[in-house]
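User: Just a sanity check before I run the rest of the batch. Below are the structure tokens for the first item. I only need the designed sequence back.
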């Protein structure tokens, strides 16, 4: 691997480590306790987690007009979220996904209004599921549920997949409106470093 590849790998590792440290502040630990992460918990804690998630999703549903009045709603937790809790909502013959933003994730530089704008534009371009509602001020996104399959790492690196991904990214860059935000990996590492230090995180010495 060349020097550029080693530097890129080092940046990615550092960003990953700092991000994990930033996520370990007290408020985010409380959020993670209520997440769907697997692990052994007492029945009491499991009940508390269930009640917390149920309360959060019920409050979110109540703020979505076309769901609030539905008489037959089914709520199914979806796994795989990192900073969000995701639920599939089946109501009146249609399926949606509500994404509950994690508490304290603004410290990670996540701007939910920009995230909404990006998802809305991607949905309109046919790149992502259509955004049907945005819950404010919480910053929760409601999209249509889309059936799909997981693409494994060994598959996604194949030329055909990479070409399809590049076409979708090019489409977004050419036709989507300019977003009020940027993602600079080097600035992000410095920002996460400051957040980690402010939360007394431990840093590697290598």
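Assistant: Here's the designed sequence for the first item:
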């Amino acid at each position: 691997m060349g020097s550029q590849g080693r530097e890129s790998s080092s940046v990615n590792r550092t960003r990953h480590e700092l991000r994990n440290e930033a996520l370990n502040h007290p408020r985010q630990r409380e959020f993670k306790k209520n997440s769907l992460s697997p692990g052994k918990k007492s029945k009491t804690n499991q009940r508390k987690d269930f009640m917390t998630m149920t309360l959060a999703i019920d409050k979110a549903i109540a703020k979505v007009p076309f769901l609030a009045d539905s008489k037959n709603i089914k709520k199914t937790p979806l796994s795989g979220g990192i900073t969000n809790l995701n639920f599939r909502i089946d109501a009146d013959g249609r399926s949606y996904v509500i994404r509950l933003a994690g508490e304290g994730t603004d410290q990670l530089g996540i701007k939910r209004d920009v995230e909404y704008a990006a998802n809305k534009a991607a949905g309109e371009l046919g790149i992502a599921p259509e955004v049907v509602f945005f819950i404010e001020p919480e910053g929760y996104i409601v999209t249509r549920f889309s059936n799909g399959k997981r693409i494994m790492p060994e598959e996604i690196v194949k030329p055909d997949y990479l070409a399809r991904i590049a076409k979708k990214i090019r489409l977004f860059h050419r036709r989507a409106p300019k977003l009020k935000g940027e993602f600079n990996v080097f600035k992000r590492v410095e920002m996460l470093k400051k957040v980690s230090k402010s939360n007394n995180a431990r840093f590697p010495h290598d």
